[in-house]
Amino acid sequence: MFKRAFPMATRPPLSLKARAVGYLSRREHSRAELARKLAPHAESPEALEQLLDALERENWLSNARFVDSLVHRRAARYGAARVMQEARTHQLGGDQLADLQDRLRGSELERGRAVWQKRFGTPPATPEDKARQIRFMVARGFSRSVVSQVIKGADAWLDGSD
Asked: Could you tell me the pTM of the whole model?
């Protein structure tokens, strides 16, 4: 077998705070998500809670920034229902969820049009095409009313008369 000329250096294990900062430097995390990721490495649940509180005080961890990040990453591709479903898994506060839902509902029609345009670009020619387009849009989390408006109004706003 091949022998190494120099033995591999072993690094000391990362501290809990170093792990947390590493995760947060890559992207925003919700408090619940970060707690889940750090739990296997924490000495105790109390130590983990103290760290999370300290990270929030020092503004390293912010659920408000996480919500903004979630909207930025998901809203262009998904409807309000799908983004809200993901947000609920992060155990955000009721106020944050209500604000997020308001933000998403306000722009859902425009986002739905953009997603539909990118995927299809032409109005459905047959009932089968229409059903396929509706299924796609609903699976992406757009409401039935928005999907209906997008597909019914496709001819008008593709021609620029909207």
From this structure: 0.77
